[in-house]
Amino acid sequence: MSAPATLELAAAVVAGAAWRSVLPLALGGLCARPRLGAGGQHAVWSLALGLVPVLGLQAAVQPGPLVPHAGLVVGAWALGVVVALAVPLAGLVELARLTRAGRPFGTTPGGAPVRLADVAAPLTWGAWRPVVLLPRAAADWAPADRALALAHEQAHIDRRDWLVHALGWAVCGLFWFQPLAWWARRRLAEHAEDAVDDAILARGVRPAAYARLLLGVAAGAPSLGLSVAGAPVARRVRRVLAGGPRPDRRLAALALGLVPAVALLFVARALAPPSPPADCQVAGAVPPLLMPVEVLP
Questions:
Q1: Disulfide check for 280: which of 53, 129, 276, 285 has CB 3.0–4.6 Å away?
Q2: How far is C-alpha 278 from the chain's CA centre?
Q3: 207 closest CA partner among 251, 175, 242, 176
């Protein structure tokens, strides 16, 4: 395949992925209702973002019509990917540097290593070997506050929030042209924090004590590209003190099934072979005029 043809095909794939990615993200916005609770909303947004690259692959299998200025379209997409992924990659490098410069400080209740580092608030990073970074001032915190902060970070580890967060950044990097993807990633980070807050309160922690901890240590939440720091502190404090809505499990099951079902139905329909035109004759059929004619004596 020649270079111009390759560029035209790549531009068609980018255009096809752009409009196909609207479906799962719009479904996520419709299904992620407050009645699902923070955990249910987080699951819905995870499914929605996870289906975006699936539909992108479907666009590669069945690209749409060719678009004009293919070279410009592909070049703009590639440049956007580099710029969009620069933030999380820089954050990953910074997290690794902070971890190396940190001082060991025990482990979390689940056994993850804890280090005192130059961070403003506790954070967790790493998918298979997660590490918890605490501010250096955490050595002087009250034991109860420190235990509560470590329990919060352990809840992130148990939920695999950092891995989901990193995958969300990857989707936004590849689909940087889709504003709904950035909105979904932000919502994903917020609901991750809300779900962990709910998990901590479910253990019997007093909301006032937990809200005080949030105000004390989360006000300086890090802005590193790959740290799980999403929801604004003021909103989280109000939510903790007010008590989040009780999740409707039946509605959650319906929402979690609706997002992939509709998106996969869309994929199956797009991949189905086109039906032949109505006036198209079936292969192998013999036209009546070519049928053998019996000659009468």
A1: 276
A2: 44
A3: 242
pTM of the predicted protein model? 0.78
- Residue 297: pLDDT band (50, 70, 90) is low
Q: Which two tokens stand for residue 33?
A: 């209702």
Nearest to 48 by CA among 267, 271, 262: 262
CB neighbour list of residue 56: distance below 8 Å, 6 or more residues apart: 13, 17, 20, 21, 174, 175
Rounded to 10 degrees, the C-alpha dihedral 269/270/276/279 comes to 90
> Tokens at residue 130, please?
């997660």
Inter-residue contact 256 to 48 (CB < 8 Å): no
Q: How many CA atoms lie within 13 A of 96 on its CB side?
A: 6
Question: Would you say how long the chain is, in residues?
Answer: 297
Tell me the β-bridge partners of 134.
116
Kindly compute the dihedral angle of the four CA atoms of residues 218, 224, 229, 235, in this order, to the nearest 10 degrees: 70
> 């209740």: which residue's tokens?
109
pLDDT digits (tens, 9 = 90+) for 124-167: 999 888 999 999 989 988 898 899 999 999 999 999 999 999 99
Helix (H, G, I), strand (E, B) or coil at 53: helix
Dist CA 92 CA 125 (whole Å): 9
Looking at this protein, which amino acid is placed at residue 274? P
Residue 113 near residue 131, CB atoms below 8 Å: yes
Taking the CA atoms of residue 29, residue 31, residue 33 and residue 36 in that order, the dihedral angle to the nearest 10 degrees is -140
Q: Which two tokens stand for residue 239?
A: 């939510």
What is the three-class DSSP state of 192? Answer: helix
For residues 215 and 286, what is the distance between their CA atoms, to the nearest angstrom?
Answer: 82
The torsion defined by the Cα of 144, 146, 151 and 153, in degrees rounded to 10, comes to 160
**Token couple for 167:** 């995958």
CA dihedral for 6, 10, 15, 19, sign (positive or negative): positive
